[in-house]
């Protein structure tokens, strides 16, 4: 059981060191911090690891620069309001050169279903319609409806839905868009897809279209998120940051410091300090205390409310949230450096591989593949590529093993993935130059995420996004940001959460 930190020698509320302390430097935390620093707030980010970024971090081995996780990046467009990564960097005077990807995903699905999601919307719909000619009209009507959601989002400034002044303003500026969003907020993709599409195989494809970023099938995937993903890939497009995904966090930190904010690495917060029930500061694992008027946690909700705070103080709203949402699995990640000759001419950057529909959600069912060096060759030694593959995996399968058993199990799992990848990259085994495996334990250890989870997923079919909490919590002075908050996982989504959190905190601080 976590103990409550001792009452500080001076009442924190009278002498806070900072306006805001952000626990964690994931993209959600950094967007919050940079937005607040840009408004003039005194901000401190405390990061337990050596570099910023969390799941959007990187690591270097033998001349390869591997993305830890994310590499299919939304939010780097130049038009509209949903290009949140571009806007977050811009707010602190930063910019990243990006490389456009002409294809979001090349799917390799059961019964030889090979499909590409081209950046060009008509090309995508055309090829999907060729494969399911009887559903051509339904396909268009379904994806066009996703555009309706996106078009509503893409006209308004995306800030805190917990701030009444903003809600009134945005409603008067864009009444139809707001009504559109209210309509879609409680809806899931599956219900809308079934309105237009009857073919069971095509409905399975829609499930996979959702699963590959929401890790749940269409029936449980909120329509708001799908509207963003299924449309923005053809609008702002998928754009890879030159120098690797790690650049996003590095540049945000550079911008944070330029704006007067601070970040400390190797600074693991072990407790959130409460004074009369209010969050007033944090205690590091090393024992130091820092105080602020507002505390923002970028750790997952499980880490925040079960580890950083005493579990017996868990607010009823958090208990209710846990009844609705559960931890998604983690991933088994295989990072390969390979000889470039193994990739055929025209190979796409992102692939999804599944041999049996029934296994889509199972451990080691769906395999996700990213080859970022097809877009930015500087991430690997000359003549080589990075192939990052990952597949769902639960922590329970990696616990209670001796070191030898753990290593052997990792090796065996890597072999199984490589065998399957041979279907799309023949002779892969012979081309491997470097290999590293990460398990759920690795994700837990290096990303500080409970059980290494990818994030919250609904336990059952819920009313769209209505159940996802915003940034304020039931504990006064404490906010959450990142993928445990509205609107969920993905870099652009957590950037949205960061904008919203900073907005809410800024209003509460009187900015
Ligand atoms: C394998 C994989 C592939 C993915 N692929 C994509 C993709 O292609 N596209 C996409 O958009 N998204 C992708 N995602 C999802 C995306 O990376 C995440 O949703 C997003 O990065 C989460 O950001 P966050 O701000 O919520 O938190 P995190 O990235 O989890 O960052 C939280 C930070 O807080 C720190 N922290 C935690 N606890 C403490 C503490 N007590 N004290 C101090 N610091 C602490 C952690 O070290 C970490 O740096 C992928 C994720 C994974 C794992």
Explain this structure to me?
With 511 residues, the chain is of the alpha/beta class. The chain has three domains: 18-54 and 83-95 and 241-326 and 466-509, FAD/NAD(P)-binding domain; 120-237, no CATH class; 329-450. The protein is built from 16 helices and 20 strands. The protein has helices at residues 27-38, 84-91, 121-131, 136-153, 164-173, 175-184, 189-196, 200-214, 223-232, 246-258, 301-308, 316-324, 403-421, 428-431, 440-447, 491-509, and strands at 18-23, 43-46, 58-61, 64-67, 98-101, 103-109, 113-118, 238-241, 262-264, 269-275, 278-284, 289-297, 325-327, 330-339, 350-353, 367-370, 384-393, 432-438, 456-458, 478-480. β11 and β12 (289-297) form a beta hairpin. It is globular and about 65 Å long. 53% of the residues are buried. Mean pLDDT is 95; it is low at 1-10. Flavin-adenine dinucleotide binds at residues 23-29, 46-49, 54-56, 69-74, 268-269, 298-299, 303, 331, 333, 390, 447-449, 454-455, 482-483, 489-491, 494.
């Amino acid at each position: 059981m976590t103990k409550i930190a001792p009452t500080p020698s001076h009442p924190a509320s009278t002498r806070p060191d900072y306006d805001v302390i952000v626990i964690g430097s994931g993209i959600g935390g950094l967007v919050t911090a940079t937005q607040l620093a840009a408004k003039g707030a005194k901000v401190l980010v405390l990061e337990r690891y050596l570099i910023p970024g969390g799941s959007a971090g990187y690591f270097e081995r033998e001349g390869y620069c591997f993305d830890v996780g994310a590499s299919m990046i939304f939010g780097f467009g130049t038009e509209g309001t949903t290009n949140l990564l571009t806007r977050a960097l811009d707010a602190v005077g930063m910019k990243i050169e990006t490389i456009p990807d002409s294809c979001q995903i090349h799917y390799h699905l059961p019964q030889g279903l090979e499909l590409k999601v081209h950046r060009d919307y008509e090309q995508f719909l055309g090829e999907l319609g060729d494969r399911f000619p009887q559903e051509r009209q339904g396909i268009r009507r379904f994806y066009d409806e996703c555009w309706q959601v996106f078009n509503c989002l893409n006209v308004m400034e995306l800030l805190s839905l917990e701030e009444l002044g903003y809600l009134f303003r945005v409603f008067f500026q864009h009444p139809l868009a707001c009504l559109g969003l209210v309509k879609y907020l409680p809806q899931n993709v599956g219900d809308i897809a079934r309105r237009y599409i009857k073919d069971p195989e095509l409905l399975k494809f829609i499930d996979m279209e959702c699963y590959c970023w929401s890790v749940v099938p269409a029936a449980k995937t909120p329509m708001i998120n799908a509207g963003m993903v299924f449309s923005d890939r053809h609008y702002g497009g998928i754009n890879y940051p030159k120098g690797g995904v790690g650049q996003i966090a590095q540049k945000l930190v550079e911008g944070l410091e330029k704006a007067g904010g601070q970040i400390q690495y190797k600074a693991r917060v072990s407790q959130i300090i409460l004074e009369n029930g209010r969050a007033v500061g944090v205690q590091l694992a090393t024992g130091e205390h820092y105080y602020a008027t507002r505390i923002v946690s970028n750790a997952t909700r499980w880490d925040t409310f079960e580890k950083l705070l005493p579990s017996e103080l868990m607010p009823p709203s958090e208990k209710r949230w846990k009844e609705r949402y559960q931890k998604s699995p983690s991933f088994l990640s295989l990072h390969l450096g390979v000889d470039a000759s193994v990739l055929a001419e025209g190979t796409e950057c992102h692939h999804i591989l599944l041999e049996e529909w029934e296994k889509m959600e199972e451990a080691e069912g769906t395999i996700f593949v990213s080859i970022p060096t097809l877009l930015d060759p500087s991430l690997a030694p000359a003549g080589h590529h990075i192939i990052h593959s990952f597949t769902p995996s639960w922590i329970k399968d990696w616990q209670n093993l001796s070191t030898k058993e753990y290593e052997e199990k990792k090796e065996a799992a890597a072999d199984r993935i490589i065998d399957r990848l041979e279907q799309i990259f023949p002779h892969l085994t012979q081309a491997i130059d470097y290999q590293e495996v990460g398990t759920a334990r690795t994700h837990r250890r290096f990303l500080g995420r409970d059980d290494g989870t990818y994030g919250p997923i609904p336990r059952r079919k819920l009313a769209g996004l209505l159940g996802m909490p915003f940034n304020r919590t039931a504990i006064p002075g404490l906010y959450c940001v990142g993928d445990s908050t509205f609107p969920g996982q993905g870099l652009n989504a957590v950037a949205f959460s960061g904008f919203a959190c900073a907005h809410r905190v800024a209003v509460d601080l009187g900015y």
